[in-house]
Every structure is written in C-alpha cells, then in structure tokens.
Inverse folding.
C-alpha cells in the first residue's frame, strides 16, 4: 500500500482516502470521539486521526498508546479543531508494534536532557531530538552543497593514520595485536612491525595535512569526516569523536581564507533558516522555556532565530590578535580585575576574553588574525617581521561566535620549505615523520590556506542547545560508548 | 589578484587580460615560441600559455618545468593550435614553487599504477588520479543529493563502538591503555574498565544497527561514513578502511528496498555521466589502452560509458536465490564441470557464479533475493515457510554488477522480537549485548528495510579502474598506512 509521509500529508488537499504510517504521540478520548496524534519523523508536526467514540474495537483502542507504531487509513478531511488544516477520519487501524505504557520510557511528559542521554537509542523519537537531527542533516547537506557549488572536491582523508601531525593532543591507538601479550622488540618495546599496518597507528585528529596534498593537486578540496581526541575531559563542549569540515585551497591567502570562512558559515546558516523553519521555531520555544529558569542577566537578549539572522546579516569584525589584546587590556573587566586570567601579548586568549570581545565589545562574530607564533601550529605561515606586533606572528585566523567561542580555526600555510623545516625542528617534529608533506613544498609549492570547523559546534549554535552531547546521535566521551 | 580556475578560463571569451595559476604539465619549445600547458586540478584539461621565443628571461624559462607552480598573466586570445579554443599570450610569469626535474617523480611519461600507489601524496597531480578524484567527489555529492531530494536524513552513526553487531569479521581495537603493561583484572585479563571508554571498544564494521534506531524515529535515514575490516587479505577488492552508504527506511518491505536500491544506483551513475563527461572520456581511453594488453576474450565488449549507460537504461533482473541456483545447475559451465565450486541449494554463491549470472546469463545487473537463512545475518527478516525454497530463507537482497560482483547487500529487517531473539540465540549473540537494538522491537516495532553500498566499489565501477586502492586517496591495507 503506497502512503505519504506526514510532512506531505499535511499539505495534501482533503477529500481522498489516505494511509498514514507512524508512531502514536498522544491519544485523547472525549465523550464523542478519540483523537490520535501520529508522527513519522518527516516533520516536527503530527497528523491527527479521529474516530467517533465506539467506532474502534476496545482491543484496538487499548493498543493505541504513546510509542505504538500504526498504519491508519481513512479519508483526509478538513480539520474541525485548531492547529491543523486536515485530519484523517479513521476507517481502519493496523497496529504494527505496540508500546507497553508500563515499560515504554518516552511517555508524553517532559524528560530531562540528562535522562534522554541515557536512552540515546530512543531520544530521536522526541520532538527536541528529531528537530535537532533534521537540522543536523540540513546543515550537513548545506555544507556539501556549498562546496560543490563553489568548485571544491570532497576528499576523504584517512581515519587511521601513522602520523600525529597536528600534535593536537592525545590519540586513540588502533591495533590488532594481542592486547595481553603483544610481541616485543629486543629492547622490550611493543613490536608494532607485527601489527596490522606494520607500524603504530592512531585515529586521526585532523585531515588537514592530507587535505593540503589534495589542494596542491586539485586546487580546492574539503573534508567532512570523523576526527578523534582522547582527552579525558568531561565538558559540555568536547567529544571524543566528532565530525570536522576542513576546506583547503591553493592560491588562497589569509584574506581569501577569511572571506571564504565568513561566506561559508553564513550560507549554511541561511540554508537552515530557509529550510528548517518549523524545527527552528520548536527549538526557539524550547530555549525560551529553558532561559526562564536562568537569572535575568544570563538570559539571551535575542531569540534563537534572531541570533541566527544576526550572524547571517552582519559583517564579521576582523582584527589582529595584537589589536584584540589592546582592547582587552583597556576593557572595564581588565581594569576592575574581573578577568580570571590577566591579558598580555603572547598569552593564549581564554574563553572569558573571547566572550568579552564577541558578546560585550563587538556584539557580533569576530575573526582574530595574526596570532603569536609561539601559541600556534608549526604549519602556519610566518608573518614578515613588522612593527605592528611585539613578537613573531603567523597568519592564523580564529572565528569566534557568541556562546560558542572558537567555531573555526585556520591559517594560511607555510609554503616555504626552509621556514617550515626550521619551525618543525624548533617544536621537535622530524622531517622524516612527514616527508610526504614536505614534498609539496619541494615540488611546485604554492601559497595556500585552509580552516577547520567542528560540525557539532555549528549544530550547537544553530539548534540553541547547550551540551554538545545533545547534537550528535550517539556521543562518545570518557567512560561512555553505549549504543 | 583575482583569477579564474582553468575550467572557467577555457570557457571565457577571448580579448581580456587574465591570470592563470596552476602547475606546469609540459613545456614545449619551438624555433619561434614556447608553449606551456598548465593544469590547476579544476578540470582534466590544461590551458596553453604561449610566448615568443626570447620573450622570457632564461632564468624564468629554466624554472618552467613539469610540476612547477606558476602564475601567468596575459591576454586571453583565440588559440592558433588545435585542441583548445583559447590560450594565454604570456605577458608575465611568476614562479611560486619550482620542481627540480632531477628530483620530481612525476615527469611527463607513463607511470605504472603500482609506482603511483607508492607516491599517493603526489598522484592526484596526474590526469588519471585527478579524474578519479573528481568523479569520486561527484558521486559522493550525488549520494547526498539523492537522499536529500527523497526525504532522507543523514545520520552519523558512531565510528568507535562497543558492539560487534554485524559479526562481520575481525575488528580493530581502539584503546588508550598502556600497550606494554595494560591493567589486568584478578583473573588475568585486560581490565578494559580502566580504558578510555570504560569498556572494550572497536572501530565500526557497519552503522546499520544504529541506522535502524534512526529509521524507527525519523522514518528514512542514511549513513555515509568510514567503516573498517581488520581482514588480513591483500586483494584488489578489499580495503581495511572504506566508506559505506547505508540507507534504512521504516515501512519499506523487500520490494520497496529493491526499488530504492535500483533507483539510487542508477541516479548517481546518471549524475556522473551528466557531470563528469570529460573525466569519463579520459578514463574510457585509459581503459581502452589497458585492455589492448589483455587477451581478446578478456576484453570488455563495451566501452566505459557504454557500460554505465547500459546500467542506467536497463531494468535490473530480479530473481530469488533458489531460482538462481536452478539456472546455475543447468548452466553450461556446471554441466562441463567448469565451476570451481559445485552449486547446490544452501551454498554461499561464489564470485564465479555471480559473474556467470550477471555477465553471461542475464548480461545486466541482477538482484538476488530470499537467500538461505543459514548464510545470512541474524537481523534479516525470516520468510514464511514456502514450497518455493528447499529450506528456510530470509528477505535478503544482493545487487550484483558486472566486473564488480556484489555492490549492494541488504534486506528487510526482522521486526518480530521473538523471532529475532530466537535467531540471536542460535548464532550466539546475547540479548544484553544489543539491548538497545531489541528495544526498537519492544516499543513501536515497524516493518523496515535497508542496504549497504561500498562507496569504493561504486567508484571502481564508474571509473573503470581495477584495483580498489586506486579509487580512494590514501588506501589502508595490511602493512600499508603511509601518508
């Protein structure tokens, strides 16, 4: 039997016989009728099915409970009630799978996000999580569409890697050796030459270095895949497994890189605004309710969609790290001693500093550039010495968002072999470890740039959620790998 | 300085000053002029830049060698030579990065695919690999577009997992424990409770089970992510790390599943035909040359694009496993004893059998269904007992392609809790191991189906390559994890 998803059914002209398949959200009985709200995941909305009291056999009625899966056939008629244009006049009900109200955890009441995290296998059946996942899908599609429209090629960089190129933190080891009795070398170390790949391997922390190989052949590439950090930190901002988008472009200098980052993030957010209005409206209300529990001064001045429109409609503020440090040193909180960490040129800016710049000083997204060399990665292009900064800087850029902090980090890449290897020696990376990376500077080196955007941070921003574990279907974190 | 990619430049009206940035493919000097062919990865084609003999300083001319990166500015003029509409009359040359002809491995001559695999960091700079990677991109985009257009939601299932649900083979262990001295339990086993996730974890072999959770909430979902097999097999068909597409649909039965699989694979191949004509033409010629080295009887009857059109334009042949076994038993090779493995009901069909059906008997893609239960996974829906098969069968389907064999494997899923757990007990899977999966059959169970398509097998088919290591940028295989 052919049928239409609820999303289409709700836009169908009344007057025809239809079948709706989905899960019961609520059942309501009045003296004269029974009302069943059905959702199938295609939209945040339910379609209402109605039967006169007594029409359905008791046996059937008893099985129509929250969570049960049903197929209901009947005429699509103009709805009598408010809130929907059409409803289904029930002629026949088939129960695919019941859901015992004594056992089914998702009863129609408010559940805490913490509780729902415990049942991540069922939470996509709730309004909140289905809305988040539909928005996550729309954003992912917008990412692919943006890069495809702009002449980029999707490049799958390796997940299992033998290089810790970013030096970005602790890594997960990947192995098939006997974990209890691994083979050993003569000097008592694990003999990885006998491992699956004949060497020690880990899960990637970034596809950037391989992405650069692609850009220096295909011109413009992007990655969009999982990356991993074995950091033992249980925060609302970090995951052990998360998805990253990393474009890399030959012939792009720092300013081109900034232009791309700003246009990219605005375009995908605009796509969500244009394509996810219903889900955003639901999450906007959810956020409003949540904010009511906060102190007045912690409540947001803007609603969720106002915040998104604001990002889309305004130019990001661009300034150098050095200029930002000046602003921070002359700021009220600095003078009143309200920053936990004192600001001086050379420090890694803390969340409190970034938030001050974005949320208090400029009140919009900010792109900071030309950071001190000492606090950035070896592969970033060194600036010429200049009087504008007290020390050596690199052509780095961080895009800072309200509430999120750093959402994008990138740079122009060092394309001079000698400067690159000198810097590698300073930070202790052997040339042999990434001989293939250095080859791109040996042969046909080109100016190029790129950045990385943590996809979950984007979904967090667009959905208005506050814990990153709530914007990925099955979060991976210390002591947590269920499902 | 703004500039256009070569792809756009080649379609630009002559008569304006342009800048081309890219890598020198060849330099040719005649008595009167020097011709430089430049490629930037945006297209298989090069743009020609021309200067009168003597115009360029010797120092510059010397650095214009294969692989060097240059920016050339000059007037775009109608080309004098054949093969291109426009060319650049050189006014200025800037050398970004030279490529010493004594050292740069990619000189303009034919390199073996084996050699290029050794320098996977540079091979995207060749015609063959840039064409493959552009086609790979187009196919990936077509996948996302297809599912987005058809109301599916992209679901990121976990990469690190605690369940070996498919039982699909050996897995890679993921750990942060001290590999030399892991903590041990009282009975001398590795104490994984002290590992990062508090339990033993592996890299996923399939996102299907989690995909089912998504489908039974959102209706229609698909995954597109990396999957892993720690099989120690060095073949032209297997990778340790590969990308898989796994759609999963509530309310789809086996026939809906077949319809979707056929429509999906045809649509993405059609997209490649429509959007990658130049790259396909190049690879078609490459294949023609390669086939000339084969014996007559091993040469393909169709060119690459003929083969693709044939798949797109014809209905796939659909038959049951039982019917296929009958055809095979009555086939010439069976009667002449030419099959290595004898055919009888219940065996897992071998490559020779599948190839006979696809390439000799039907001469088109084939969907085999209703396989013996004993050779398929526990989660496949059990058929009602029927006289049409000698033993118990399941609603499985395999899509078989010429030259590739199985490109898609899927099934309707068992939605009956009792039948599912009975089957799990038979094959030795504990209920507790996948309690969350079973919950979907406990609460609101629904008929549903899905399948998996190995992305590299699709790229292999569309590109006409014969080794799967040549259709992924950085292949991972036993003893091989470079780059």
């Amino acid at each position: 039997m052919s049928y239409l998803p609820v999303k289409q059914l709700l836009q169908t002209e009344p007057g025809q016989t239809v079948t709706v398949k989905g899960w019961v959200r609520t059942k309501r009985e009045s003296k004269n009728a029974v009302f069943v709200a059905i959702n199938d995941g295609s939209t945040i909305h339910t379609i209402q099915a109605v039967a006169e009291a007594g029409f359905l056999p008791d046996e059937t009625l008893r099985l129509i409970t929250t969570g049960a899966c049903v197929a209901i056939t009947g005429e699509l008629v103009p709805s009598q009630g408010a809130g929907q244009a059409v409803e289904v006049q029930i002629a026949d009900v088939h129960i695919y799978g019941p859901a015992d109200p004594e056992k089914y955890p998702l009863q129609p009441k408010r559940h805490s996000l913490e509780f729902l995290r415990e049942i991540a296998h069922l939470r996509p059946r709730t309004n909140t999580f289905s809305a988040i996942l539909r928005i996550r899908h729309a954003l992912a599609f917008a990412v692919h569409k943006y890069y495809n429209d702009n002449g980029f090629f999707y490049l799958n960089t390796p997940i299992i890697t033998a290089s810790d190129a970013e030096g970005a933190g602790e890594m997960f080891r990947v192995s098939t050796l006997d974990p209890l009795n691994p083979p050993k070398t003569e000097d008592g170390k694990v003999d990885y030459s006998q491992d699956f790949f004949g060497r020690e391997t880990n899960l990637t922390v970034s596809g950037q270095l391989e992405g650069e190989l692609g850009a220096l052949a295909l011109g413009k590439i992007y990655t969009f895949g999982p990356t991993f950090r074995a950091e033992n930190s249980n925060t609302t901002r970090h995951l052990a497994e998360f998805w990253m988008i990393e474009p890399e472009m030959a012939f792009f200098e720092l300013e081109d890189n900034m232009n791309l980052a700003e246009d990219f993030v605005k375009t995908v957010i605009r796509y969500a605004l244009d394509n996810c209005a219903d889900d955003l409206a639901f999450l906007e209300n959810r956020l409003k309710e949540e904010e009511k529990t906060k102190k007045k001064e912690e409540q947001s001045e803007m609603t969720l969609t106002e915040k998104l429109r604001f990002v889309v409609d305004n130019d990001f503020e661009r300034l150098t790290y050095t200029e930002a440090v000046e602003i921070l040193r002359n700021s009220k909180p600095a003078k009143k001693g309200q920053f936990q960490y004192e600001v001086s040129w050379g420090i890694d800016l803390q969340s409190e500093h970034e938030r001050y710049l974005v949320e208090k000083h400029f009140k919009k997204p900010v792109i900071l550039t030309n950071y001190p060399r000492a606090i950035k990665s070896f592969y970033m292009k060194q600036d010429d010495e200049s009087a504008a900064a007290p020390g050596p800087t690199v052509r780095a850029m961080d895009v800072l968002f309200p509430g999120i902090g750093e959402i994008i980090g990138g740079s122009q890449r060092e394309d001079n072999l000698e400067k690159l290897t000198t810097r590698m020696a300073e930070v202790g990376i052997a040339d042999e470890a990434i001989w293939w990376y250095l080859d791109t500077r040996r042969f046909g080196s080109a100016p190029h740039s790129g950045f990385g955007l943590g996809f979950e941070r984007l979904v967090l921003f667009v959905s208005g959620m506050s814990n990153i574990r709530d914007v990925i279907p099955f979060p991976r974190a210390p002591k947590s790998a269920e499902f």
About this structure: The CA atoms of residues 29 and 298 of chain B lie 42 Å apart. The mean pLDDT of chain B is 95. The domain at 125-170+205-470 of chain B is CATH 3.30.930.10 (BirA Bifunctional Protein; domain 2). Chain B touches chain A through 108 residues (CB under 8 Å).
